[in-house]
Design a protein that fits this description.
The chain is an all-alpha fold and 242 residues long. 79% of the residues lie in helices and 0% in strands. The chain contains 11 helices and no strands.
């Protein structure tokens, strides 16, 4: 079994960025920490909107997000992630804000087209171009997130393990995932849904509203399914001409 080098690189970037952020944050005055967190919130909202706007079927993305959120809430995904975060916090001695940092960083670093396409590229072609760029971006994000709050930063640092596990799994599953990604429109709709989830994360970082963004993760699986159903419906025999 081949070692997922891209996942290792990305996890290492998050680790280094988090450690640097914690070191810098320890000497920053509170007002500058607030600015760092607000800046990351604005960047995250902007990135999420950029990912959503190119969607060719925003209604489909919205439907996937709403249905996925209902499913995620019913399954109690946020409770499960809180439990995992609690176990890590107790084991590592983290404080208040640890859970939020872990969940926020994990979702931020592990959704989006660069994650999926980068892992497929690594698994199928042994290329690290996309994950290399993503590692630089994630390492920078980890630095500023960790600098904003000591306990939040400890959670961001712990997300290194989640990044390694999730991206490593995607890399090893690259062959079947590549067949899904090749379908026209699939990546666009997954990206659009991921963008909306990032907006939710950004609003939380800005302190505007707290949204349990992890509950919307099933929407990333529903987006390609809804796209497939929509494409089949559009191609049905006897469909009236527009």
């Amino acid at each position: 079994m081949r070692v997922p080098r891209g996942a290792l690189l990305n996890a290492a970037a998050v680790l280094v960025g988090s450690l640097l952020g914690l070191a810098i944050g320890s000497v920053l005055v509170p007002s500058l920490k607030t600015l760092a967190m607000s800046g990351m919130g604005l960047v995250t909202v902007g990135l999420g909107m950029r990912m959503f706007v190119p969607s060719k079927n925003p209604i489909l993305a919205a439907a996937a997000l709403v249905v996925g959120g209902v499913i995620g809430g019913a399954l109690g995904i946020h409770h499960g992630m809180d439990w995992i975060a609690d176990q890590m916090r107790l084991g590592l001695g983290g404080g208040e804000g640890f859970n939020e940092g872990l969940v926020t960083a994990t979702v931020l670093f592990c959704i989006g087209p660069m994650t999926l396409l980068g892992c497929i590229e690594d698994g199928m072609r042994n290329k690290l171009d996309l994950l290399g760029v993503k590692s630089l971006l994630d390492g920078t994000a980890a630095l500023f997130l960790s600098a904003g709050s000591q306990t939040f930063g400890q959670g961001v640092l712990s997300s290194t393990l989640a990044v390694l596990l999730i991206q490593g799994t995607l890399t090893l599953a690259a062959r079947p995932l590549s067949k899904v990604a090749e379908r026209p429109g699939v990546i666009e709709e997954i990206t659009a849904v991921g963008g909306l989830i990032l907006v939710a994360i950004g609003l939380g970082l800005l302190g505007v509203v707290e949204i349990r963004s992890e509950n919307f993760l099933p929407a990333l699986l529903l987006a390609p399914l809804f796209e497939l159903v929509s494409a089949r419906w559009a191609q049905r025999p006897g469909k009236p001409e527009a």
